[in-house]
UniProtKB/TrEMBL annotation:
InterPro entries: Amino_oxidase, FAD/NAD-bd_sf, Flavin_monoamine_oxidase. Signal peptide: none annotated. It comes from the Eukaryota. Residues 36-454 form the Amine oxidase domain. This is Amine oxidase domain-containing protein.
Length: 454
């Protein structure tokens, strides 16, 4: 129940003026505002940006990649200081029995996955579907009708599982029945997977504070932060000057309050956070937007045993799924795949998605580590000399009360007028003089770049 990503929001409004051009975003001038305070519920700044030293370099517990170049403020801020690297992943797919999926089969799976995201054509078989899960069901049934033997049908089911994982990983939805098939979301053109060369996404925070590349020119910002300060109440109700009351009882008035909560926090706590309650249209937006999570598990090994630049997707075969259930390991079905950690040769990242995430977060590190050892041996021991990880770092975004998830998506709701709920959430609250006093920011307030850092 705190303000997260507060620094980025403050920086946007107070220190720089961002002007859009057709070629991108240009930073024009400093404004030299100093009379301000920044409250952060966590003991660190950054919100969903959280870089942690693990192994030989930093790993990103939260946001990891700079997605695209054109009209991407993150890219615009760092493109000239040589911090981003293209992620040269070598993508491969392994089945749970250790079989390697050949390129032709992988291409079929990719075509099927892409057909889900391209189902906006009125003549498409999913024209009447509203959710990704519904479209998956329609396409699956239509394909299976053309097949006669069970082996071919199981191959189709395997395709569905990869498509499901892909949709979940991009959108964070725990249940694809809730993920809208058609979305306003946009991608920035250009390189979609740029990494931070082992220095972590925290680099952008240092760029914003001008601590990087020259720390001697940093902004006088550090004394503005109030870390580990949760907000209990925001009082606004047409008052000339709104105020925030912290959990420890302090009251702070201001001309303007820029609030960057995670959507999950608003869903759970908006009735307690605001005095008086938020306007009905803003509550409607909070309730009708989707919000979910993904999970990353970082594994440190004594030695590297996997190929360079590996991005290995996983497919569970039907009989292996049954074995997992008998062993009480069905949560491992949520594994989408593993990737190498940039500039960190002994670290693998396991990506988990979907309905089991709330359960996995409750497990002990020892239980999760045993599961990882089992699944890595199951998938890769036929091809590699698999060793066992000896250290683990994992995310718990759903159970952190300052986040309650990771990022937003467009939910399946009745919306005949195509209301853009992100714009409703972004709309400021005003006082009796119509002066904006409570301003909202964060990924869930952008009409088409929601879920992405920029």
């Amino acid at each position: 129940m705190g303000i997260s990503n507060a620094f980025q929001c403050f920086h946007y409004y107070y220190w720089k003026c961002f002007i859009r051009y057709s070629s991108g975003i240009k930073i024009t001038e400093k404004k030299d505002f100093n009379n301000l305070k920044i409250f952060e519920a966590e003991p660190r700044i950054g919100g969903r940006i959280h870089s942690v030293k693990f192994g030989n370099a930093f790993v990103d517990v939260g946001a990891a990649f700079c997605h695209g170049e054109k009209d991407n403020i993150v890219y615009s801020l760092v493109k000239d200081i040589n911090v981003l690297r293209h992620s040269q992943f070598q993508i491969s797919v392994y089945k749970s029995n250790g079989e390697f999926l050949d390129d032709a089969e992988h291409e079929k799976i990719e075509e099927f996955s892409n057909s889900i995201s391209n189902s906006n054509n009125p003549s498409d078989e999913c024209a009447t579907a509203t959710s990704v899960e519904e479209c998956l069901g329609i396409k699956t049934n239509n394909l299976i009708k053309t097949l006669e033997n069970d082996e071919e049908k199981y191959k189709i089911i395997e395709m569905i599982r990869v498509a499901t994982a892909k949709a979940s990983s991009y959108n964070s939805a725990l249940d694809l029945h809730d993920l809208a098939l058609r979305s306003l979301f946009k991608l920035c053109s250009g390189d979609f997977y740029m990494n931070w060369n082992g220095q972590g996404y925290k680099t952008i925070l240092n760029v914003l504070m001008e601590k990087f590349p020259n720390p001697n020119q940093s902004l006088p910002i550090d004394d503005k932060f109030n870390l580990h300060k949760k907000i209990k109440t925001i009082k606004w109700d047409n008052q000339e000057r709104p105020s925030v009351i912290t959990v420890d009882g302090e009251t702070h008035e201001a001309d303007h309050i820029i609030f960057t909560p995670f959507l999950g926090v608003l869903k759970a706590n908006h009735l307690e956070l605001f005095d008086p309650d938020l306007p009905e249209d803003k509550v409607d937006a909070i309730n009708k937007m989707g919000y979910g999570a993904i999970m990353k598990i970082f594994l440190l090994f004594p030695e590297k045993w996997w190929p360079n630049n590996a991005f290995i997707k996983t497919i569970w075969k039907h009989n292996d799924e049954e074995t997992l259930r008998k062993k009480n390991l069905e949560w491992l079905i949520s594994l989408m795949g593993v990737t190498t950690a940039e500039n960190n040769p002994k670290v693998l990242i396991a990506w988990y998605l979907g309905k089991y995430l709330p359960i996995i977060e409750t497990f002990s590190d020892e239980k999760v580590l045993r599961g990882q050892s089992y699944v890595l041996d199951k998938l890769f021991s036929r091809h590699f000399n698999v060793s066992q990880p000896h250290q683990i770092l994992r995310t718990k975004w759903l159970n952190n009360p300052n986040f309650l998830g990771t990022y937003s998506y467009e939910s399946v709701v009745e919306n005949p007028n195509r209301t853009i709920y992100q714009e409703k959430l972004e709309r400021p609250l005003t006082n009796k003089n119509n002066k904006p006093t409570i301003l909202f920011a964060g990924e869930a307030t952008h009409p088409y770049y929601f879920s992405i850092v920029h």
